[in-house]
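sry for the spam today, last one i promise. struct tokens for design, 206 residues
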């Protein structure tokens, strides 16, 4: 006799159903996908082969969810995992979807790091701020260290500080010089620039 699995389907809202097998949440499915196979609010025993079909459907849904997500913009593996976790997919299903996206080059932390670095350089962000963002996304250092040095040499950082400092001083020119210096240093330091770099830019501006 084929061993059975206990299935429970629980509507989360009008459009999504939570799927549990043997008391463990395996993920969520759109109601329109599940209903042709099982009713929502179902609880009972199903054959093992039917449970495998349901798991395959969940794997397909997880992969499809990532494809839609990655089609809109580059994302890190960390972001992709969090997306699937929020949708309550089983860790093994998440691992499989991530691996499949990597193999087909839909997901690349190296590509994401390149986009992130260029984006923050364009916003005049400090190198320290960019590194914090990369670490926040759990991007390994070996992926971005050389790239960051290549795209953001010391000269570029100096130009950014000088430009930001000049703009800040222009909009706060009514302040006494010492007060302006204190506020400008604090502003740039909070953005992640080093005090030595700020001092150098201040002396050039003066």
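last one done:
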């Amino acid at each position: 006799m084929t061993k059975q699995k206990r299935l429970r389907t629980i509507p989360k809202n009008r459009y999504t159903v939570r799927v549990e097998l043997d008391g463990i949440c395996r993920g969520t499915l759109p109601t329109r996908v599940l209903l042709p196979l099982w009713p929502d609010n179902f609880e009972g025993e199903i054959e093992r082969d039917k449970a495998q079909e349901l798991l395959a459907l969940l794997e397909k849904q997880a992969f499809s969810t990532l494809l839609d997500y990655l089609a809109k913009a580059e994302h890190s593996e960390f972001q992709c995992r969090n997306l699937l976790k929020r949708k309550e997919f089983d860790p093994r299903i998440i691992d499989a979807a991530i691996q499949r996206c990597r193999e087909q080059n839909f997901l690349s932390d190296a590509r994401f790091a390149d986009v992130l670095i260029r984006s923050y350089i364009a916003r005049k962000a400090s190198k320290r701020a960019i590194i914090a963002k990369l670490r926040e996304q759990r991007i390994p250092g070996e992926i971005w260290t050389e790239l960051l040095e290549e795209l953001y040499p010391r000269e570029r950082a100096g130009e950014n500080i000088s430009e930001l400092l000049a703009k800040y001083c222009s909009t706060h020119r009514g302040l006494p010089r010492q007060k302006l210096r204190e506020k400008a240093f604090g502003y740039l330091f909070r953005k992640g620039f080093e005090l030595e770099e700020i001092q150098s830019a201040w002396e050039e501006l003066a």
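DSSP finds ten helices and four strands in the chain. ok im logging off now
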